[in-house]
Amino acid sequence: SPSDLRPGEAAREGTVDIENTGSLSGAFTLSRGAVSNSDPANPLATKLNLTVVDCGAFVGSTAPTCGDGNDVSKYTGTLADMGTAGHAIAALGTYAPAEKHRYRFTVALDGTAGNVYQGDSSTVEFDFNAV
Predict the structure, then answer these.
(1) CA distance 101 to 18
(2) What distance in Å separates the CA atoms of residue 108 and residue 48, rounded to the nearest whole number?
(3) pLDDT tens digit string along 62-80?
């Protein structure tokens, strides 16, 4: 939930850990829900540059290191361009039972965002699914 982003400023980041808690292998995907913008006439989501990377699998209880050169890009683009709500935007691979991965999300406000976006907000839900 980054806030107070400024145009061209360094990206903010957060991580999420996803684990296959089932007894069978599962094919995991990432999708997004509907994007909500506080100003539909000037949707902030068109100016939010987003990246999603798979930092790797845990080894036992040891988390992988994000940014160590082994990250695998899953999405790069604006939040608005990130596929259609409810549809998978990234195949994450097949996880064995108890396999756990760390994902890093980074977001930055594009340097071209003008004053029209000041005070605006954009929200979205991300869903990790397994089959």
Answers:
(1) 5
(2) 6
(3) 999 999 999 999 999 999 9
